[in-house]
Amino acid sequence: MAASSYMMFQVFCLISVFCLNTALQCKVCSKEDPNCTIGDNIESRTCDNGEDLCFTWFGRKGIEVRVERDCISSGTKGYKAMKKVTGSPNVVQNRLKPELDSIREAGTWKSERIISTSQSAHIKIEHSSNQLLNFCANNYLGLANNPEVIKASKQAIDEYGAGLSSVRFICGTQTIHKQLEQRIAKFHQREDAILYISCFDANAGIFETLLKESDYIISVSTIGTEKQDELNHASIIDGIRLCKAKRLRYKHKDLSDLEAKLKESYNDKNENVIRLIATDGVFSMDGTIAPLREIRRLADQYNALVFVDECHATGFFGPTGRGTEEHFGMLGKIDIINSTLGKALGGAAGGYTTGPKALIDLLRQRSRPYLFSNTLPPAIVASAMKAIDLVENDTSLPGRVLENAAYFREKMQNLGFTILGDAHPICPVMLGDARLASQFADEMLKRNIYVIGFSYPVVPKGRARIRVQVSAAHSKDDLKRCIDAFAEVGRQLKVIK
């Protein structure tokens, strides 16, 4: 009863405040500035009276969601009540505010622009009528809004419902979940596969389940250091932290260092010790490709297993889109593959592990993210199966995205930009300074090119960049417009001559 009364009091306070303060508004930035639409933009969260409270909420007008703000005057009765309702304990404020301020001061604050259309090579964002060219999505094949993918998703909702309200082993497995797992295993030429709600969950579940204290996990470290494995995806890093195996790190693409770590772990007296080499197939921030042939050779020499995260390869890399191992002509040679359905294969969500049946059986019994997370919704399962159909039936799709990437890389390098990576559609335009990367992205947006600046902690300090991602859905005209905008902004900010 007490809790219910307090909730009613909160609602009353909110209503009272809005009634008393409808004429008061916070200072706002220009409506033409897309950053103005960001609810946490500090420039739009101040009042003329510094003691007043700027209250921000989201309001809906038709299908449009808008950011609304009003000043709550310190002279009104509702002010103290609102501060009590919305305020955080002092210990939280004291701890978090300096950290938040430091992020802003460093120029690494990440704002979220709100997209008002479907994901595509051409999009619109809230509070702007301009159509933007999108060069920062993982939508490598342009299937996120493909009509056939959408149709399959709708049909699945009609037949199987919106969701299962259950984990897999209780009452959360439908016919289509088993069908997709079989399709994934066949696509990768493996014995079996297991679905997760995301590849982050797949990576969180694999190492803890497979490896014991006597085992070794050997993963990639950042360039020139053994302190942090920043080049591997965050989900691999976090997954490794959950397991009890001994951890060794080798330098990025340094095969001599990898062999030294394998020698350190080698114990021919105990055949039950697992030595697992864990690597991304394609490193998502640098666009570099792991040397899988040489890694496989060393693994065979030292009786080790190889795990590869193929999130930035599945569906579009290799002649038929089967990933990094196919790119190197060694399909079926990697022991364990984790990948995603949330990038090239429809772009919705979902991840998986594929490999030996014994491993998949064990994951079904012991993998905590699998056992304690709701099952993948039927609509996503169906859209992923349709995406696999499209990739298998049109082998020109992978070729198209790689052709676009090669064109973009060549033209940008000719202009004088430093582009990291190998022959891959992840094309990091290196800028170094975090503020410069953020400013560069803002200037590109003014030219209707949607790209994002990446800085610490997403990438190491001093290695800020614009990560351009090229899609099969981009036309040559799209690519030329993007390159021309880069040239104009690059000269304006003195990045190139």
UniProtKB/TrEMBL annotation:
Which keywords, in A-to-Z order, does the entry hold? Answer: Acyltransferase, Pyridoxal phosphate, Signal, Transferase
Q: What Pfam families does the annotation carry?
A: Aminotran_1_2
Q: What is this protein called?
A: 2-amino-3-ketobutyrate coenzyme A ligase, mitochondrial
Gene Ontology CC terms: mitochondrion
Q: Span of the secretion signal?
A: 1-23
UniProt lists the family membership as follows: Belongs to the class-II pyridoxal-phosphate-dependent aminotransferase family.
Q: Which cofactor does it need?
A: pyridoxal 5'-phosphate
- EC number(s) in its UniProt entry? 2.3.1.29
Which PANTHER family is this protein grouped with? Answer: 2-AMINO-3-KETOBUTYRATE COENZYME A LIGASE, MITOCHONDRIAL, CLASS II AMINOTRANSFERASE/8-AMINO-7-OXONONANOATE SYNTHASE
The molecular function GO annotations come to:
glycine C-acetyltransferase activity; pyridoxal phosphate binding
Coiled coil where? none
